[in-house]
UniProtKB/TrEMBL annotation:
Transmembrane regions: none
InterPro entries the record matches: Bact_response_regulator, CheY-like_superfamily, Sig_transdc_resp-reg_receiver
Position of the signal peptide: none
Protein name in the entry: Response regulator
UniProt domain Response regulatory: residue ranges: 7-124
Keywords: Phosphoprotein
Record-linked PANTHER family: RESPONSE REGULATORY DOMAIN-CONTAINING PROTEIN, STRESS RESPONSE REGULATOR PROTEIN 1
Organism: Pelomonas baiyunensis
Statement: the UniProt record of this protein carries the keyword Cell division: no
Modified residues (4-aspartylphosphate): 57
Length: 132
């Protein structure tokens, strides 16, 4: 990927879910995916490179995703970088958690590929790569 590729960080401890997201994002050119399997790894990756979109699982081995977002913002994830909660919780719970904890949206598992791509296209349109 080029240096101007749109950088997505997905914080997800389940390797199957990470592979699914990788497959979905590969359907869009100009998108590079990095996966963190824990909150600790996500905090490290935020300090090591640009993030244009954060996708965050709710249940991680070392921290809940709703707590992690605030930690990542403190670690250096810019406030203008959109964050999306990715969870298997019910629609109403997912929407409430996203609103309460500063996420700009939520995606429900199992992911609907077409809906995920539409929402990805939306974020790419409204939030150009921060390196450009």
């Amino acid at each position: 990927m080029s240096a101007t590729a749109w950088q997505v960080l997905y914080v997800e401890d389940d390797p199957v879910n990470a592979l699914l997201m990788q497959g979905i994002l590969e359907l869009r050119q100009g998108v590079a995916l990095r996966v963190a399997r824990s909150g600790e790894e996500a905090r490290r990756l935020v300090t090591q490179g640009r993030v244009d979109l954060l996708l965050c699982d709710l249940h991680l081995p070392d921290v809940d995703g709703n707590v992690l977002l605030a930690q990542l913002r403190e670690t250096g994830l810019p406030a203008e970088v959109p964050a999306v909660l990715v969870t298997a919780e019910s629609e109403s719970v997912a929407a409430q958690l996203a609103r309460q904890h500063g996420f700009q949206g939520h995606w429900r598992k199992p992911l609907d590929v077409a809906a995920t791509l539409r929402q990805l296209d939306h974020w790419m349109a409204v939030s150009p790569p921060s390196g450009t």
